[in-house]
Design brief:
Elements (H helix, E strand, L loop, with lengths): L24 H7 L3 H33 L3 H9 L1 H10 L2 H16 L3 H38 L5 H33 L4 H25 L2 H24 L13 H32 L5 H36 L3 H28 L1 H9 L6 H15 L2 H16 L4 H25 L1 H26 L5 H28 L7 H25 L5 H9 L3
Helix pairs in contact: 2-8, 2-11, 3-7, 3-11, 4-6, 4-7, 4-10, 5-6, 5-7, 5-10, 5-11, 6-7, 6-10, 7-9, 8-9, 10-16, 11-12, 11-14, 11-15, 11-17, 12-14, 12-15, 12-18, 13-14, 13-19, 14-17, 15-17, 16-17, 18-19
Length: 546
């Protein structure tokens, strides 16, 4: 489930007194980041996204060792669908993308009291909605699982799915408030604790899988999810103290800021509904396939998200408040320059990552997951899906950046309309290709639809921000493609020289991680020889400390 959290209903969040409001020039410095500070913020977020992905990978390794691609794990994953749908529509990406630009506008204008009043009103309204809807869904969980979520499951598996869903709805309420806190902290350029919170969430699930599943089975994982959601919230509360937040027990749906958030949320909710429908359709279709198909899709999806999170989502998280602040101060030219530079850096990382993920998919899955209940058959199921997901990695990464640029421009309809069209295509292709390619067809449908979404978003964004520097973009893409092709050829030779058939676990580990090191070295060397313009800013993300 998406990461988010909650806050306590105190009249005031403890912290030092609110200082005298500064002039407009000071919030401008606070609201947007210089190149050096942006690099530092991106570095902080990237480091914790790496930790989050590493702990997330460790979480899946532990889960895989206990449950492999079993019926129980399929039930656990199916149980996530409705709680995650509720979170995304009410408190997740929809609320964050609408709340941050509105909050940032107050912040950039030195209206900090108004900003925290908006935060309080949105938090109270969202929490109330989540509690009411979650309670209703708990009552309806049985029929939802039987008729909608997993009609292909056996009756016993549907019962387990229903029980797990009810537990997960508790964590959704906690995640809702936590997500809003994350948005507020990011809008104030505070990235450390929001980026660290998912790490603790993953650790809680790991402990649940490790310590509780021997006694409670799959319910040990759900206990870890609920505890992890609470910890995810608690980790961020000190950040509110640092930014001198103020909480008010107030509800006012007529407030102009609340109405603006709701206005911006409307299209995003529609878009996310279709995105979540894609996952629901995947669950429905996979529930009727070979046992373990849903689990295999989940493992493959998470492996694709590993580089996507490290290289795209982390940078997108750091840059979104700056995009919003640049727009609020009328700096569209600066936004265009910033977006172009970030886009080229994203491509610099994700083009080779997609190729490495495709070529090394079998040894990577083997060395990471294949133990105990995770068999060679499980590896084959996951590898089959991962090859199709890898094809969409670049598109997923670019969409992360492009969508945030639209939201910063207070244009939520354009990415939503494009996203809805892409998801309708995704769902249609899923019904078609699942018959031809099994669960691999579901992964391929996602990659194809996301690629089309990326192309349309970039074309439409170009019109809104006055175009891109196509000459620089084309030169950059050419160098990256050449470096990636040479890297891929060397990696292919490496795999032919050291085949994994009947190799020992240690040898497979050497092939996998040695291949990653060789691929990275070759790519950077060729990029240096070709004088890639993105090599210097990409390395700067790793060097700058302020």
């Amino acid at each position: 489930m998406s990461e988010a959290q909650q806050s306590t209903p105190q009249t005031t969040i403890p912290g030092p007194p609110v200082p005298t409001e500064p002039s407009l020039t000071e919030p401008a410095r606070d609201a947007t980041l210089s190149g050096r500070r942006l690099a530092s913020a991106a570095l902080v977020v990237m480091l914790f996204f790496v930790l989050s992905r590493v702990t997330g990978l460790a979480r899946e390794i532990v889960i895989g060792a206990h449950f492999g691609t079993s019926l129980e794990l399929d039930a656990y994953l199916a149980a996530f669908r409705v709680p995650d749908l509720l979170f995304q529509l009410v408190a997740g990406g929809a609320l964050g993308s609408a709340f941050i630009p509105t909050f940032a506008l107050h912040w950039a204008r030195a209206q900090k009291a108004e900003a925290w009043l908006l935060f309080s009103r949105v938090l109270n309204l969202m929490t109330l909605l989540l509690v009411v809807i979650a309670a209703l869904l708990m009552v309806l969980a049985g029929p939802l699982v039987h008729w909608v979520i997993a009609p292909g499951f056996s009756p016993a598996q549907q019962v387990i799915t229903t029980q797990l869903m009810r537990w997960m709805l508790v964590s959704t309420v906690v995640f809702g408030a936590s997500g809003l806190i994350m948005g507020a902290l990011n809008a104030t350029q505070h990235f450390l604790l929001p980026a660290a919170a998912p790490v603790f969430y993953n650790l809680a699930i790991i402990l649940g899988a490790w310590l509780l599943t021997p006694s409670f089975g799959i319910f040990g994982l759900v206990i870890g999810v609920v505890v992890g959601a609470v910890v995810h919230l608690l980790v961020q509360l000190p950040g509110l103290w640092q930014v001198r937040a103020r909480y008010s027990l107030t509800l006012d749906v007529q407030d102009a800021g609340v109405r603006e958030v709701m206005r911006l949320m409307g299209p995003r909710v529609l878009g996310l509904f279709f995105v979540q429908m894609h996952f629901v359709v995947n669950t429905i279709l996979a529930s009727g396939l070979t046992s373990g198909s849903l689990s295999a899709l989940n493992y493959a999806w998470l492996l694709m998200l590993l580089p996507q999170g490290i290289f795209a989502q982390s940078i997108a998280t750091a840059i979104f408040p700056t995009f919003a602040a640049q727009v609020s101060m009328g700096q569209v030219d600066t936004l265009r320059h910033t977006f172009g530079q970030i886009l080229r850096i994203i491509l610099f990382f994700t083009i080779p990552a997609a190729l490495v993920l495709y070529l090394l998919r079998v040894p990577l899955i083997t060395v990471l997951f294949q133990r105990r209940e995770f068999t060679a058959e499980s590896t084959a199921l996951v590898s089959y899906a991962l090859q199709f997901y890898a094809a969409g990695l670049i598109a997923h990464a670019i969409v992360e950046i492009a969508v945030r640029a639209f939201y910063a421009l207070h244009d939520t309809w354009t990415p939503v309309v494009v996203g809805v069209g892409a998801m309708i295509l995704n769902i249609g292709l899923s019904f078609w290709w699942v018959r031809l390619l099994g669960h691999g067809g579901l992964a391929l449908a996602n990659s194809a639809a996301t690629t089309l979404e990326m192309i349309l978003l970039l074309w439409l964004l170009r019109r809104q921000i006055g175009g891109f520097d196509w000459q620089r973009f084309g030169a950059s893409l050419w160098r990256q493609a050449v470096a990636a092709l040479i890297m891929g050829a060397v990696l292919w030779c490496w795999l032919r020289w050291l085949p994994i058939d009947e190799a020992s676990t240690a040898m497979i580990g050497f092939i996998t991680f040695g291949g990653i090191v060789i691929a990275g070295g070759i790519y950077l060397a060729i990029a240096f020889l070709l004088r890639s313009a993105e090599l210097q800013p990409a390395l700067a993300l790793l060097r700058r400390r302020r």
